[in-house]
Amino acid sequence: MIADETHKQETHKQTDSRPRRRFWSRGPRPPLFAYLAVSPTLVFVALIVGMPLVYSVWLAVHKANPITRKNTFVGLDNFRFVLSETSFWNAFGRTAHFVGFSLVGTTILGIAIALVLHEPFRGRGFMRSVMLVPWAMAPVSIGVLWSFIYAGDIGTLNGLLHDLGLGFLATAWLGDGNRALNLVALTHVWNQTPLTALMVLAGLQSMPASLHKAAMLDGAGPVTRFFRITLPWLKPTLLFVSIIATINALMAFDIIWIMTRGGPGEATTVFAWLGYVYSFQFLRFGEGAAMLYLLTGLSFLMAVFYVLVLGPRRSRHQAIPAATALDDDVAVRSPRPYSIKVPPTREPLVSPALRAVLARLGFRALVLTIFLWSALPVMLLILMSITPASDLIRVPPSAIPSALTFDNFRAVLFPEGGTTSVQAKRVPLSLLNSLIVGAVSVAIALAVTPFAGYVFARWPRARLFQGGLWSMLFTRMTPALTLVLPFFVIYRTLGLIDTHIGLVIAHLSILLPLIAWMMKSTFEGVPKSLDSAARIDGCSHMQMMLRVLLPVIRPGLMAAAIFGFLVSWNEFLFAVILTSTPDAQTIPVVLSGFLAQARFHEYGPMFAASVLSVLPPVVVAFVFQRYLVEGALSGAVKG
Amino acid sequence: MSAAVTIDNVVKDYGPVRVLHGLQLDIREGEFVSLLGPSGCGKSTLLYCVAGLEQISSGRILFDGRDMAALGSRERNIALVFQDYALYPHMTVRENIAFPLRRLKVDRKTIEGQVAWAAETLGLAALLERMPSDLSGGQRQRVAVGRAIVRNPAALLMDEPLSNLDAALRVHMRTEIKRLASDLGLTVLFVTHDQEEAMVMSDRIAVLSQGHLQQFAAPMDVYRNPANRFVAEFIGSPKMNLLPSPDRADILLGLRPHDLTPAGPQDGEDAFSLAGTIALIEPAGPQYFLDVLVGGQLVRATASEIDNLSNGSEVRLSAPAHRVYRFDVATGDAL
User: Fold this and answer.
1) Residue A216 and residue B176: Cβ atoms within 8 Å?
2) What residue spans of A25-76 are helical by DSSP H?
3) Are residues B143 and B97 in contact, defined by beta-carbon separation less than 8 angstroms?
4) What parts of chain B have a pLDDT lower than 70?
5) Which residues in A358-384 are b (16+ Cβ under 10 Å) and which e?
6) What is the pLDDT of residues A39-72, one digit of tens each?
7) Chain B nearest CA to A352, separation (Å)
8) Do B114 and A338 touch (CB under 8 A)?
9) In order of start, what are the domains of chain A with their CATH numbers?
10) Which fold has domain B5-233?
11) ipTM entry
12) Fewest CB within a 10 Å sphere: which of A35, A346, B43, B154?
């Protein structure tokens, strides 16, 4: 009886909905619960990302008069103006240089590091954590660190050169235009390489071991195997990595703000910086917005270009022959037409034992190089933070401190103790602010996005959800600068400048798409049968989420929380534009403030504050390395 | 041409763990040898050692009398078909099959001819321009074999190549592979945990357990004259029954279910017999399997007819005396 009924329902469904379904939507129709679950995220994103974007589009087609505050519609004039500016085309050239440098640098170094850290050796987990540190640090902290290393009179690099008796080589490293651009790009590479390495590492881990064994037996040496087996296997990963790395390089802003502010002259004025200058220094909102939209378009074009170049290779055959030859037995075999001669084997030049020793030594050297590349600058930062402030401004400079002291930390942690530095007094509150903003943003994001992620994962073909997902992806291609201007204008009218809630909303505009995407990937790894089991065992949709699925994806939630917190903790642009007093300023803002108004005796406290600012990221990199790798696997990648 | 493979006292240690305990196997040129054993017995490790993918800790591996110790896997001219086939996912079928020849720097005409021959031999001619992702499991398997036979390997090693195929295809492919190997005169080392596969395909079977060679003999020899209790139990389905000997405590009796049948009037004087109660009757097509409770122990037997039998009925089972195996309780050796 029951069977009869289901049967009837099924035939009914088939005859009734098949033709229509194919026409309107692909896949089964999602239940009401799916729409309810996805709506908070979509509504939030529409409000805090969609609306500002629409406003900035409006800005881009208007001309604002800063004095009369009147806006006149000018159509595409702003774009026309920008495209006719020589400064735009100069910035275009520099951007191309910067992006090319970063892309080549991060890809080559990232693949190399991943290859080394893919091999099993003792301390591999530790080395993976060390490798991640430059990426976990805030770009602002990185900028502070490297601009002091490259600084002219008192910089660490010059200090080292003096210490080594090579003082004649000392120079103002960021003083020369072309060199400054390259050094900033190198710093960007230092920051971004771990991301590439992490994703390539994930790609390598997914490669079946038998592939290399087969190639070895087929006579391929290590070099052939790298180019013929490993690289082709990594192609999808490299496609993704190139897109992300290009976008990140196009949008690079924090480092430039800290290190060169577009200078010397205009030597490091790339697109993103020019857009900022137009919008916030010249207050030419229309032109600034137009420029930033050109940047968005460029990111998009580059992404399309990569997909075309690196996209998946299809079989050459056109029509698939219906029946394949699998079942016809070959009754009579023809003999081999050729006899393949195997070339005589040569006795190896070095004995296998010696070769093994050499290989091990070479490998150790590579591991040590990776350690120095990743950790040495950070150790320098720590060293500078416990160096007496007066040592840091010695002339001639030296990298060796005359004494070790915790005065700098005392100055920034207990400002009542009588420091004279204004900026140092702001550090404790800013740390607290960063903590509050980060924790609240993550909590809100985690409260809504798992539901959206679940829906995206389970009904990937429903049009509405697909649209939502793609628009979220699109927001990752728009520079934060595009959003920050509307945010600033809206916040000024609503009185949200200098508030925690204002910063939380701004950070959510980054976190919601990011974490929703992560959640989608996480849920894709959860078998659908689990949903069915929970439903059959009597759970409502909501109970199924809360009692069964969320506990199952706890590692994914953990990874998302860590990622989200780091992104918020390190975020600089929103924080600096949307705050003007220390009330809600976060630690990156206060750090950048040190540079803006530094008096020379404040370098010590500045480095102490930098160390405090990189402490949470470094701790995360070490303690939660496993989760971070997992997060990278699920496609979460911050700028 | 294929080589004779000698495995001479080979020992393999992973750190403190010894996985191969001095194995000794002489494999003749053109012979099809299965390495059979439960998972973790070291059979795949031995295969990888022969291929040069793993270094042996001591002993020698010789191809046609030549020591392979100094040669890497590249130089040994070995072909290996992996369990997951290990097809290069970014190359077409043609490129996959041609890959080993390209590495040998063979001229293009020869490559074309050889690939065409391999494809024809395996019925792959229509699929040469496909990517591996567009192939079915059985087709992938054939491509992997094609890549292995396209040159003349000294030996063809196969690491459970049929385990990812569905049952019908598996049966089909094992005859295919067996035929191909004998047509081409290949020396084959075939790793499997499926005793039936090993029985059907091999000239000789090497039964391994925990890194020790248990027996190395022709299939029916292994079946009829198992060297010890392990081999006796591992080979044959359903498993051999092991019963305590009625007269001696240090001896176990082994009886294959197929040799143990309900007693009939034709049984000779010397026939071995048992009495028990039927617990379950399983129809299995050509015969029935009987689970018989004999003194608290379940014994499996077979019957061609069950006219007078039902659950709970008393039955007398008998087996020819020469089909009763005896094993030492302490060592497990056959007596």
Assistant:
1) no
2) 32-45, 51-60
3) yes
4) 1, 265-269
5) eeeeeeeebbeebeebbeebbebbebb
6) 898 888 888 888 888 888 888 888 776 666 677 7
7) 7
8) yes
9) 30-75+405-639 (1.10.3720.10)
10) Rossmann fold (3.40.50)
11) 0.82
12) A346
